[in-house]
Amino acid sequence: MKHYEVEILDAKTREKLCFLDKVEPHATIAEIKNLFTKSHPQWYPARQSLRLDPKGKSLKDEDVLQKLPVGTTATLYFRDLGAQISWVTVFLTEYAGPLFIYLLFYFRVPFIYGHKYDFTSSRHTVVQVRFILAGFDQKSSCFPNASGFSHGTMPLRNIFKNCTYYWGFAAWMAYYINHPLYTPPTYGAQQVKLALAIFVICQLGNFSIHMALRDLRPAGSKTRKIPYPTKNPFTWLFLLVSCPNYTYEVGSWIGFAIMTQCLPVALFSLVGFIQMTIWAKGKHRSYLKEFRDYPPLRMPIVPFLL
What are the φ/ψ torsions at residue 75 (nearest 5 degrees)? Predict the structure, then answer.
């Protein structure tokens, strides 16, 4: 059996970092990363990006050496992705944090609204409903974990940016919603019921989409397939958009904005929509590039429009 020699160079300096001799032809990029780690323990596999060109795309962990456009002496270029943290830590930090912050304002702990309001509660039903849904919404934020990730980690530097966004908006929204001078929605209970219905429908839809995506990829596999609707009616949105989970997520926050009639909630919904549109467009382009038979009717996030 013919073996390969693998030379790993720094993508920036072209300095030779490692030379691997007698590498099996069917070795995967993941296995090569493990071999590279033995000589450079500071760069564990999750930190590594290996590519065929210094400015090219990262190779997938499941790519097989003999199937790559290389000779028996392969040159790979290495980039350090930086310190990584697990997605479990990400979710606990990014989503449990805002829930804790919201509770501080809901229970009106001292030094927030003034001493006479310490540990008092709002008399408005909408505030109580929002409190119940706050915990439910943070729990539902873990739905993406059920559909699986192409990477099991996230760069540590990203968590500071993300926490500033999530925690900051959580405090801003909670401050106004739980404020002693907060006024309920203009149309009262009817407006709250309508918004609650929108929220529940969108949360069920979000959950259904993530379950469909999870079932699309067998356990331990990273094979990508085109997602299609199932017998679950909530998944029928796949007929019109590539990322219905984002569509449902935005819908949930629109429901919250209607329910609370609060400007910070509306702004958070708008910013979230813009960010999720960027993600959806990226994923949509990826689908179009990867699958020639991808359904032409689908839009990234908003049916027929966007």
Answer: -115, 120
pLDDT above 80 for 145: no
pTM above 0.70, yes or no: yes
Beta strand 16-23 with 4-10: parallel, antiparallel or unpaired?
antiparallel
- In angstroms, the CA 44 to CA 55 distance is 21
Identify the pLDDT of residue 214.
86
Closest CA to 285 of 247, 250, 243: 243
Q: Specify the amino acid at residue 255.
A: G
Of 16-25, 65-74, 146-155, 264-273, the least confident? 146-155
Long-range CB contacts for residues 155-163, cutoff 8 Å, separation at least 24: 155/81, 155/82, 155/83, 155/84, 155/85, 156/82, 156/83, 156/84, 156/85, 157/82, 157/83, 159/85, 159/89, 159/90, 159/93, 159/94, 162/90, 162/94, 163/93, 163/94, 163/97
pLDDT at 64 over 70: yes
